[in-house]
Each structure stands twice: as C-alpha cells, then as structure tokens.
Write a structure and sequence with these properties.
The protein has one domain: Alpha-Beta Complex (Spore Coat Polysaccharide Biosynthesis Protein SpsA, Chain A), CATH 3.90.550.10. The N and C termini lie far apart (about 35 Å). The radius of gyration is 17 Å and the shape is globular. The longest helix is centred in the last third of the chain and has 29 residues. By secondary structure, the protein is an alpha/beta fold.
Length: about 240
C-alpha cells in the first residue's frame, strides 16, 4: 500500500556525486514541511556517487539503492517506482539541470488540481533554455517531432515530472532507453497533464548520456509505442462494435 500523501523523489544516477551534493539541500528546502524522501538509484558509479548520497544529512531522508548487472535511466526509475512507498512519485535528473524550486509547482498540480501527471517542460514560452547546447536542441526538437503523434504534450521527452502512483497501475511499463516519461504518457494515458515551464539549467556534474546508441534506442522505443497505440486502438474499436 502506498504511503498516503507522501512524496518519493527518485533520482537515477551514474557518476554524479557533485550533482547529488549540489541538489540535496535545494530539494530539502523545496520539500520543507512535506512528508517526503529521496531515493537514489545508482548504477554502481565508479566516482562514489552512492557513498556521497549515503553521507547526506538533513531534513530529507535518503535511501540509496545500488544496482548490479543492469544499467539505464529508465530501468533505474522503474526500480525506484517499485521500492519507493510514496503516493506521489517525482522523477528528476541529478546533474543540476532540473531546478528543485520547480518541484512544489509540479506537486501542487497533481495533489490539488485535476492533473494525473505534471511535467516540467523545457519548451518554455520565453524560449529561455540556456542549459541546452545547440546540437542538443536540434536533437531534442527532432525527438519531440517524432513523438508528436503519440501525445499532445509540448515536451514529451522531459525527464522531470510527478505522477500519482495509482496512474502506473493502468498498464505495464517496459521502456527502451531513457524516456520513461514518454512511456508513461503513451501507455498509461494520463488526462489531464499539467505542463509547468521552467528554465533548463546547465549541468553542474556528470556527462550527457545522449549518444548514437541512445538515439537508436529512442527510435526503437518510439516504434514500440506506435505499435502499442495501434493495438490499443484496435482493442477499443473491437469492444465498441460488440
């Protein structure tokens, strides 16, 4: 049973010890007075990320899970979903690009409003995205364009979001690569989705995991989601004609 009202923040990490140290006090401040906890899901970082996470002290309890054998951002988030007890699940990066100050607005959208999922969108109306290099912007824009038929969300590739745990019961999740938010959008079909614009910041630690391999996995992930959507539509049409 989920811990009613509790917020579990899930951070998938690999070689981000400096990011964890930077982010923790800001998360503790953002979640001050909120029943909450931090779950660090680390893929055996050689830089000692897990050790730094265990050493953090403050008002926000920290749980550290070191995975062996398997690696990857999306599967790390799924591990966090399985372990964390919160009724509300927040996912964000640990490299400093996702400002903790946005988290309360995401939580309010799900806790107090009608939203089943709240996404921090980098597609801010001001166009102010200093943390995204030109090459990343081109790739990100292309990725959003490819996913556009799957969802009306402006930034479906965002990795910063909050969901109510009950939403995840609608469908099994089996992502390829790192776009777990897109997986939830397509398979669980949250409605409505709140979008909170924010300023994507330069990373302060770690390296981008976006390479040719990840781009290929993203394309395979999209193909799988398109097939799943087609099957879902066929099933719904079959039920309505009975």
């Amino acid at each position: 049973m989920p811990n009613s009202g509790r917020v579990s923040v899930i951070l998938p990490t690999y070689n981000e010890r400096a990011g964890i140290a930077y982010l923790y006090p800001r998360l503790a401040e953002a979640l001050s007075g909120v029943p909450s906890e931090l779950w660090v899901i680390d893929d055996q970082s050689p830089d000692g990320t897990a050790e730094v996470a265990r050493s953090l002290e403050g008002s926000l309890p920290v749980h550290v899970v070191e995975r062996t054998g398997v690696r990857g951002l999306a599967t790390a988030v799924l591990e966090g979903f399985r372990r964390a007890p919160g009724e509300y699940l927040a996912v964000m990066d640990a490299d400093g690009s996702h400002p903790a100050a946005v988290l309360p607005a995401l939580l309010r959208a799900v806790q107090e409003g009608p939203a089943e999922m709240a996404i921090a969108t980098r597609e801010a109306w001001s166009g102010d995205r200093p943390g995204l290099a030109l090459s990343r912007r081109v790739i990100s824009s292309g990725g959003r364009w490819l996913a556009r038929p799957l969802t009306r969300v402006r930034d479906p590739m965002s990795g910063y979001f909050v969901v109510r745990r009950s939403l995840l019961d609608r469908a099994p999740l089996d992502p390829i690569g790192y776009k777990i938010g897109l997986e939830i959008l397509v398979r669980c079909r949250p409605d409505p989705v709140a979008e909170i614009p924010y300023r994507f910041l330069p990373r302060i630690a770690g390296q981008s995991k976006l390479d040719r391999g990840e781009i290929g996995r993203y394309v395979r992930h999209l193909l799988r989601l398109y097939r799943a959507r087609s099957v879902g539509r066929a099933d719904r049409q079959a039920r309505t004609t009975r």
